[in-house]
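Technical note accompanying the year-one report. For the benefit of new consortium partners, we illustrate the data format agreed upon in the data management plan: each record pairs a sequence with a structure-token string. No post-processing was applied to the example shown here.
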Amino acid sequence: MTANSIVFIISILMTIFITLNSLRKVIGIKSSFLDKYDDVLDKSAVVITVIIFVLGIIDVLSAEFLGLKGYYILLAIYMSASLFLVSSVENARKRKKNAGIMSFILKSFTAVMLLEIFVFNFGSYHMIFGNYPQKVISADEATVKREKTSTNDTTYTFENIDVPVGTVMVDADIEGTNSLFMFKIGASDETSEPVREDAGRIWAVPGHQQTYIAAMNLSGDVSKLTVKTFLPDEQSATVNSIIINRPISVQFSVLRFIVLMGSLLFIYAALKAVKPVSENMSFLRNFVNAAVITAMCAMTFMLLTSSYVESGFSELFTLESGDQLTQDIVDAFESGHTYMTFEPDERILSMENPYDSNKRGELGLQMNIDYAWDHLLYNGKYYSYYGIAPVLLLFMPYHLITGYYFPTVIAVYLFAMAGIFFLSRIYIAFIERWFKDIPQGMAAVGIIIMLASCGIWFSVARPEFYEAAISAGFACICSGMYFLITSNILSEGKISLKRLALSTVLLSLGVLSRPTTAVYCMCAVIFIIMGFKKAKEQFGGRNLKYLCSAFIPFIAIGSVQVIYNYVRFGSPLDFGIQYSLTINDFTKSQYHTQFVAVTVFNFIFNAPAFVPSFPFVSSDFQTLGTNGFYYKDASTVNAVSMGLIYRALPVFSYLFAAKAYRLSDSKNKKKAAAVISVFSIIAPFCILFSIWESGYAVRYTADFSWEVLIGAYAILFTLIIKCKNQAVKDILCKVFVFSMFFSFVVDFAQVYSFMLAKGTSENYKDIYYLLAKTFEFWN
């Protein structure tokens, strides 16, 4: 046994002693034996901490100390902080103030730091109990073989290693724009004379030396090592040498510590915040505002690392071309007509059925070259199916003022930001009007799940014109429903006609942005009718003002869509989607219930699987054995299809809807049940039934996710408030907190996987890789 391993074992024993002594103090274990030697134990803890601290100082000052760079200083910090926290707990007990929270902080700190030192850095201890002599071999001693394939592959073969190999570090100079590179390590050990070419992989991030090293699990002496580079044409890498058996430094991750410690403290705070929201309304608003700001920061990060902004922000606002929404419709309207300004190719006009994508392919017609992909072809002209509200309100005014086309990526970002802001206002209004007796901690948990699972993140991740339409509709529906709720037509308080009119304006614009959202306008009409009796009591004979405020915006803005449809296709209700030049022929496609089942299953019920690779959640799109053509967007992306009941676990509350209805003593519970049924169940499922023809695209989750969830919250919050059994109520609250973490992990995994595959710039993929390595510590 080496000196390194002996000192390491002693340090572990010291750590166990410090930890047990600290926990003894916090938990309050009483023993005559321990009490007798309490002073000795405390002094021993101080002596041990000093010893480890001295080792830590030497660790910092030395280039390499006892084979575990960074271990002893991290251990010294843990022990010192532990003694300080124990003292703080004892002082808090004497003052009889904050002893509980201080005790919890110490326990949480102990758990997190032990994980940080011994679990998350376990790769650093890979060679502690073996004899692994360090060896540096120059690339000059290697045989070099270069291959010209789709990548610039170069293989370096190092022979006569003749020592056990615990780690391999590649010293290389890398040039190019990519932020992530791969080296494949091959090895010949005593179990295999031929080289196993994929014995290990190194994903190297320039500027992060820790990523150039990999732990190897080989047997006996290694005779030969190979290092193969995989680089695209514009990249180059020169291997200078390999370093064998260099220790992997112990790394303290601030991010990892904050995430774990913050999660534990949030759980504690959420479960301890049992006072109703009504006692401190500012708490709800402040917490929701903090959650929204955090969400906006996350969206900004996605924008800044997006491949859609690689040209730079200054160039984004001086675009001389755009897409179907930002340019084609703009040019058409500015030219005084609804059809596109460019003419269809004669070859596609001469086709018997131009909507058949296979026939177009057989004729050699290429999308966006010989025909306009995803445009509508009708009577020899190109049209657009997509909503005109963002065109009329943003894209065309910008073009008229500046002469440039507005960037789609910025439009999606702005619409998404507006949407989540108003979604948070909806949540506040929802709690304040109907569930202000919910515990503060549970109210805080609810907004996190709602923002995480709302579905708009996928539009931000891949901001194309499809997503521009969806995000515009999302913003309009969220803002419209907020003003509808706060107009008080469904709740106590004086009806605000201004808010009612504004809500119907915004909901109407939602339809002009995304026709699918028309179902929520229908819901609003039902709610307005429900409020008619209240309006009559408030306005008396002037009830006409209520009707005008509610329906004139619907009629006026709805007329724009109706006229737009009639001018294009000769029918006020024809949106023209069947004329799309897309992957499928919508003019001939037939309804199949199995396709609806596939849609509903993948959006609502498809279960995630937990896997050991970051982001730890995976899923596959499920066809349910259905034959025939069903479009699946980004179907190869990890976790692209996960059911809403898992992305927002409280949706399971619908199973207890009948019980919540029985427990409710509200005189308006029938009306409440009707509102939930119409808005949170019927309308979302109408959307799901309507999109079967378009297939599956994860961006569609923004059309229905929060609407389903808010109905589930109404049921769950009723159960929590009306539950008389405190033990059962405590269980409900704990389950709700668990559901927040479960849902957040699932939502994060889905968005992370989609963003990495579809929207992340190559210049920033290193950030995502380093994030993955922070938590995927075993790989």
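Partners are asked to follow this layout when depositing records. The mean pLDDT is 89.
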